[in-house]
Structures are given as C-alpha cells and as structure tokens.
Design goal:
Largest sheet of chain A: 7 strands, mixed
Number of helices of chain A: 14
Shape of chain A: globular
Strand content of chain A: 15-25%
Strand order of the largest sheet of chain A: 1-2-9-6-5-3-4
Distance between the termini of chain A: 34 Å
Helix content of chain A: 40-55%
Largest interface: A-B, 42 and 42 residues
Radius of gyration of chain A: 20 Å
Oligomer: homodimer
C-alpha cells in the first residue's frame, strides 16, 4: 500500500481544497502518504493536545494502532477508541458508549476527535465530536472512497435509527480533512467498487467532464492505482466543496448531492443494510434516472449511460440480483428526511452533468412510477 | 395566574430583546399573556406548519394541553409529546424516545419544535431539535425563572449523563423565545425560590445595579408579583443576551455566566439531583465567593452580601442543611466540562457586579481550598 516512486516515476498529484462553512473555512488535504504525516497536519490545523482517536476494529487493525503510536510519539495524549466495524454500529448506542468512554478518560473542552475510517466512522465520530461537551473539534481522516469524496466533506454527522438512516445528527464542520489515497489499497474490492459506484454521482449530477473522466479511468480506480485515484479524488472533492460552500445547511442547492439517495436510502434500509451504501445509491441513481426519463425531464439514454459505468462496479461489489421487498422500500421512502408534508422528494437529472431544477431542486414522484422503477432494479439491468 | 389590570392599573412592562447568534439574530419576547398569543408569535417568527410541542407531564397539565388546542385551532398540525417531569428525565434515553416519536409522526424537515417548560424541557427539547434530521427550528417557551433568564437564551441544549450534567449536547440557537411571566404563578414556591436564587448570578457577576434591584424586590419576586417579575426578567435577560451576543460558543467571555456553576453542578450531581439546580448554583456562588475572598481576589464581605439575598431564598426552597458527600463532590468536580487538562476551572468575583479576570475568565483553585469551602456549606450559613 505504500507509495511506489519507481512505478510512477514522478510525484503524485495531490493538493488542498478549502471548504467554506459558517464556522470558518477548513482545508481538505489530499495526497499520498499524508497518514504518516498526521501529527504534523494536526499541529498545523487544530489546537488540541489531547485526542480521542476513533476507528472501527477493522481499520484499527490496518491503520489505527499504528496511527495512535505515531501520534503518541509526537507528544499527543491519545485515547484510542474502537467500535465493531459495519453500518450496524452507526447507532445512538455506539455514540453513547464512545461519549462515555471519552468522559471516563477525562477529556475536556481542550480535547479533539480524530475520526479514522469509512463513512460509518466519519459520521459516528463526527456526531460524537458535535455533541461532546456541546462540541469539540474533529479532524476527519476518511479511509474509503465514499468517506473521502462525500461523508467527510461538508460537516454532516449522524447515526441511523429504527425509522431510517442518518435521521439523527448534526452539522459539525471538521477542523480539517486528511485524504491519503494509499489507504484505499487495503480495502476489500467489494468496498472499493461500491464506493466508486456512488462516486459516479458527482459527475452525473454536476460535472459532465468529471463523469467522462470517470468513464475513462474506471478500471484504474477499481485497481486503486494511486495516481489515477489521487487525481480523481481531488476533482471529486472539488465538486463537492463547491456545492457545500454554496449551501452548507442543505436548504437549497446542496440537495442536488442527494441524486440517487432517496431511493438508495430506502433500498439500503429495506435490505436490512445488507446492501452497501454506495451500491444502494448507485441503484438509486439508475431508478431515479429512469423515473426522470419516463417523466420527460431527463434526456433519453441517460439511465443507460449511467448503467454502463455503474453495472461493472456493482458486479465487482457482488451485487447481482436485488432481493428487497418493494413494500418495505415504500415504507422507508415515507420516512425519508427529505420528505415534505409526508411526501418524499427526488433529485432528477436533466442530462449527465446537470440536474433538472424547476421551482425547487427536488421533485415529487407518483407512487406507481417509483414502485415501477424500483421493481425494474430486480430485473436484468 | 391571569393578568390583573385592576390591581396594577396600567399596562405591564414587557418588551423584546434581540440576541445575536452565528445563525442570525433571534428575538426574546417578554410580556404578560404572550402564552395565549403563541400561535401569532409562531406565525411571525418561524416558517413551519407542523410542530412537535414538547413538555413534561406536570407543565402539560397546567398549560400544555391548552396550548396544543389553541395552536390546533390556529391551523397548526401539532404532535403533542410529554415526558415525566424532573431532572431524571434529562437523559439520552428521553431524547431518543422523543426523537423516535417525532419520526413515527412523520415530521420532516419542514417541522419545528416548541419547548414548553422549565430548564429540563428547554435543554432536552432543544437538543431534540438540534439533532432531529440534523436540526429543525425550536421556539423556546420557558415556564420557570431559570429557563426564562438562562436556559432558553443562548442556544445551549443538552442532556445529563452518568459522568455529570449537560455533558452531551449542542449549541442550537432558537428561532424565538417567548417569556410570559404569568405562568410563574403556577410554580410551587420551592421552584420559584430556587430559580430566583440562581437569578442572583446575573447581577452578582455582571451588573451591580441589577443585583441591587434584586435586593430591593426579592419579596415581590418570590411572591410572583407580575409587574415586578416582568421588569426583573427583562433586565436579567438583557444582561444574558449581551454576554451571549459577545461570545456564543463560550470560548471566552460567556464563561462568566458559569459563576457558581463549577461547585454548583458538582453539588447537584453529588446529591443525586435531590438538590434543585438553582439552589445548587446559589450554594456554589457562596462557596466560590468565599474561595475568592480567601485568595484575596474577591472583595471582603462579598460572600456575606450574597448570602443575605440568597439564604432567605434557599430557606423558601426548603434547603436547610447540605448533606452531600465531599468525596462525591470532588469526583464530580474532576469531570466538569469546564475542566482543562483534567483540572476544574472556576469563575471568581472581584466584587458584586464584576468578575475577577486575569489571563483568562476562569481560575484554578487548590483542592484543599475547594474542600474547605464546600464543607463550610454544610455548617451554619
């Protein structure tokens, strides 16, 4: 997983993107090997000397313990906290346990949280930081594609509850985000494929050029080829940062990032979270693109072009046939937090790289149409 | 409890104070009879048509059900939610239940929360609003002195946990605060006395004139005399609003509002919350004033002058002899969220109306001195 200067023969692409938030601007730092330099980056970007390093037990084994040791060597007082890997841990209960562990360790307002992991960790540890003593700084160190391009940028934190995903949480802008593409090589291929499948969203909804770059480099990305990955991440994060900077609280424009998410979240919940988030959103994008085409809002062929990128990734992610109860999907759609007056809302595309926006960034859809496009997901792609 | 124009013979004092917060300015509206006009005030200050009205079962009986009916008559879709009255309800569990009940009722991002009650309700329902779908608006309608002058102004929300009070929460500025002094007449005298005892703090720490007005009108306030109460509340809220406007996140100056709170919170926790919050803070002020005098930071006689106002209120609140384990107090002091590097911090007075500030707004104190002044609380006043 370490850098390979011989193979690339040049320094890797990387850089810094500044994201505007109500509480100030924070940097997203992208570059190979940044994880090894974490103590320097912390010293530069957050004024704390006591840290809770929060990670799941899987990422803990690969990176967490080493990172904790390195931070301690650099003089940080580190409380190392882990929780069982997986979406099932993204609960109020895990949040309570982590908070109590930090209190037991005597961490005060002069402490901070380092969230090291995928989207579950960045959301969960972010919510811990948002609410610990009414808020302490968090540095997000995402280790999955999804968390890198999405979960850790924009300040959304939260947990899942009985009624659905991310229904309880807070906006809590990080002090900094540290993205080291080298860690992606340690992910199982199914994870990587699922994350990349959701990654299609930024290009599909917002930037045709990015979508086309994705089409060209999909194989290298699935292979975790480091330079291709770093370049892709940087561009994808730039797109996200522009949206979040324009509308931190998701009162308007930021909603476009929910393309694929209304149906995606419901699929994920209806599967009992057996379906990975990225795969679920990818399926949601296909269904919502199809709904848009049927309504005449989305350019014809959009769904098929999306499918040609997404299907190979879904296959690599091990998603072959969708076996979820449409009744359950319908129930979870009703509880969606983007609902207004009890009706779920959908982001629809005009074409690849552009959303269809009328009076609002989101649309209502007839129930029968939603049922139809969801059912079609179970059939041949 | 209703207005008595014959007795007062003139319109009551009342008014509006605007509080600056990062998310915008919000109004605190003070006036007799405002509770009956709540639907108009909501229409003016918050853009929601679906509401969760959150209150405890005691305030529910006195006011809640009537308020819910009136709001419904005015066209609001009201989900009426109660929890058992008392500090023991200010937990993550109550927060979870309320959140789930709102989700079950299908409330979306277009909904808001109305918190009707004392400090437990304003803190708990405020935290529900802060975290529901990552934040929906809250209108605070405090029904106790404490909640009126303190808890509902400034955006602090939260719950108590094993390690102490308010250790988990969020800053979430209300959309508006509605203060109707008439509701205070329905409080038990012990509640009112305890609330007033903490109310001494704003004058003691920040405004000598307010402290002296308090000395003059203590009897009328304890009696819930409406005009005296409205005038006092308005002045007290003005003081609080100035502090919060200058430092919303309590990174500096806002800490002065914690006078009496470091020892107060520890006493409250060590008593198993048998001691009311206001009474505990009043005792904390006496102890912290004495500590300041012994260190030569606080003008001599300050503690006794405070005691002459506070003791009659504590007696009316039913606090006769303090029976808490000093060992337990010490343990809770160690877990105080104002601690830095594991050491609790204290706000000390220079004299009535002014805090002693050096390099920081707070000070460390020697453990023996804290033990001493805490133990003296158990003896004759």
């Amino acid at each position: 997983m370490s850098a390979d200067p011989v193979r690339t023969g040049r320094s890797s692409p990387g850089g810094r993107i500044d994201v505007s938030a109500a509480a100030g601007t924070y940097p997203v730092l992208v570059g190979r090997g940044l994880l090894e330099r974490l103590s320097d980056l912390l010293a530069e970007h957050v004024e704390v000397h006591r840290l809770a390093l929060v990670t799941d037990d899987r990422v803990g084994r690969f990176h967490g313990e080493r990172v904790a040791d390195r931070l301690r060597s650099a003089g940080y007082d580190v409380t190392y906290l882990t929780f069982p890997a997986g979406e099932a841990s993204k609960t109020r209960k895990s949040w309570s346990i982590l908070t109590d562990e930090m209190l037991d360790a005597g961490l005060g307002r002069d402490a901070g949280v380092v969230a090291l992991g995928g989207g579950v960790t960045t959301d969960l540890a972010g919510f811990v930081a948002a609410t610990y003593l009414r808020g302490v700084p968090v540095v997000q160190v995402p280790t999955s594609h999804l968390a890198m391009i999405d979960a850790s940028v924009g300040g959304k934190t939260g947990v899942d509850v009985r009624a659905g995903k991310n229904l309880v949480g807070a906006f809590h802008a990080p002090a900094a985000v540290v993205v080291d593409p080298d860690v992606l090589a340690t992910l199982p291929i199914e994870e990587r494929a699922s994350g990349l499948a959701e990654g299609v969203k930024h290009g599909a909804a917002l930037d045709r050029g990015h979508f086309e770059a994705f089409e060209r480099s999909a194989a290298a990305l699935l292979d975790a080829e480091p330079d291709a990955t770093a370049a892709y991440l940087l561009d994808s994060i730039r797109i996200k940062a522009e949206v979040v900077g324009a509308d931190e609280r998701e009162s308007g424009y930021r909603q476009v990032l929910n393309f694929g998410h209304t149906i995606g979240h419901a699929l994920e919940a209806a599967s009992g979270y057996a379906l990975r988030h990225g795969s679920a959103v990818a399926l949601g994008m296909l269904a919502e693109a199809e709904a848009g085409e049927r309504l005449g809002l989305t350019e014809r062929g959009t769904r098929d072009r999306l499918a040609s990128v997404v299907q190979p990734l879904l296959e690599a992610a091990g998603v072959t046939l969708l076996d979820v109860d449409p009744e359950a999907v319908r129930r979870f759609l009703g509880a969606d937090k983007k609902a207004r007056g009890g009706r779920p809302r959908y982001v629809l595309l005009r074409r690849i790289g552009e959303v269809a926006a009328g009076e609002a960034w989101t649309h209502e859809l007839p129930d029968e149409l939603v049922d139809d496009v969801v059912e079609r997901l179970a059939g041949p792609g």
